[in-house]
Amino acid sequence: MAMMIMSAAATLAASLLGYLCWNLVYAFWVSPLAAYYKLRRNGFGGPTPSFPLGNIKEMRTIAKLTVSSSSSGGGCGGGGGISHDIHSNVFPYFSQWQNSHGKVFVYWLGTEPFMYIADPEFLKEMSAGVMGKSWGKPRAMSSLMVESTTRMLDEWATLISSGVPEIEVESHITATAGEIIAKTSFGVGYNESGRMVVEKLRAMQLTLFNSNRYVGVPYSKIMCPRKTLDAKKLGKEIDSLLLSIISTRKNSLNTTTNNNKDLLGLLLQENHADGRLGKTLTTRELVDECKTFFFGGHETTALAISWTLMLLAKHPEWQDELRKEIKEVSGDKTRVDFAMLSSLKKMGWVMNEVLRLYSPAPNVQRQAKEDIKVNGRTIPKGTNMWIDVVAMHHDRTLWGDDVYEFKPERFKADPLYGGCKHKMGFMPFGFGGRMCVGRNLTMMEYKIVLSLILTRFSFSLSPSYDHSPAIVLSLRPSHGVPLVLRPLA
Ligand code: HEM
């Protein structure tokens, strides 16, 4: 009898083990190989993956080789020489694979296929071309922006007068942009809880980036338990901070007239409109909405301004042009106000040229909800698409021989596309129905902050500036942007 029970238990254990093994083999090899051959049959080639890591190992090797060759002088220009030809440095594997596989190919992160796209015509054929939406109560928000920026500039002035003319401006601008987005998204002011939300959200961003190393590899969360737990803990802390902000605001809605013109105020008012709070969006959805805005809006704008300061520091003639324009537009007034922003045309060209050369959002992603037919080939349902914005913005065939030059005037005759040969070759804010909802707000923040800086200071690049653009979710200057600032009389 005992023998029979033991043998039944052994059979059960063996079948369980067999089932587990089959699941692993299926997830790690069978399923990705089937998808691989399906994509190949549809005419989509690319670097050969080896499962379960896909092309991750090769990507790391190429990235490592690039880092060591740029630190030995082959990069995009440390110290004095600054080259804007950055694609092969920030996305070395894509740059290398483009040479052998063209502008559309498939690569693998673990067992997940990604369709790489750097061909605007393919993108046009593939996308539905729906219009985007936009958000923002600009006039009410501009005064919040002036207030935060002025506080930052006063701090710069104090530093300079105490004998510190060199300031690493990127960190200051990122902190100020965090403050602005916290105010405009969920009405959190420059106080302790406001700073705490901003700091925690930023920490979350970094944790997410760092835990992304094995994205696409099955069970990768189990492989990095520490990072997964850290991200979970931070997520809970952020949620409870935002929940307490939301419930305070909900209570004040019941007792007072709500004058808050931030995103949360608008959402709460919509929810409250028919007297049944929470009908339109649940509290959970409100928290998610606030987080999406913070992640989408804070660093991107700060980076656009920081890269602009780097480029203007190298091009003092453009600093002068913009100061002249600000003077013309503002006339007798001491500072630019909301109504004047649309007249700052040259500043708009500069912004676009900066977004072209150093697009803070270096890529855009999509997933095929259905099979998509493109020129007789089928992109299977579920395929991830990875659109290389940096590659298209630095493509000589689209922009001409001066592609790597800082030339804001290319947007003079063609303010939307800068003379790009294809309408989808310039897309700093994405495309179609999911295009960035914050682009109007960004334009406003950019012009306000830049006008305030340019009217108070002139600046040049510090000799310690090290030109090393790198991807940490966004396209950032690895070592910040140290400037030498001089107050203007
Ligand atoms: C220079 C500044 C900015 C850049 C370069 C930028 C870029 C982008 C890009 C490329 C996307 C993806 C679009 C797509 O998938 O087609 C996006 C989405 C988004 N952006 Fe921005 N953005 C900026 C500023 C902002 C600001 C200031 C906010 C908020 C106040 C914001 C909020 C969002 C949100 C919420 C989404 C997600 C939209 C959706 O998924 O429907 N962005 N942005």
UniProtKB/TrEMBL annotation:
GO terms for cellular component: membrane. The keyword Repeat does not apply. It is a single-pass membrane protein. Its cofactor is heme. GO terms for molecular function: heme binding; iron ion binding; monooxygenase activity; oxidoreductase activity, acting on paired donors, with incorporation or reduction of molecular oxygen. Heme binds at residue 436. Keywords: Heme, Iron, Membrane, Metal-binding, Monooxygenase, Oxidoreductase, Transmembrane, Transmembrane helix. It comes from the Eukaryota. It is found in: Membrane. The keyword Nucleotide-binding does not apply. Belongs to the cytochrome P450 family. This is Putative cytochrome P450 protein.
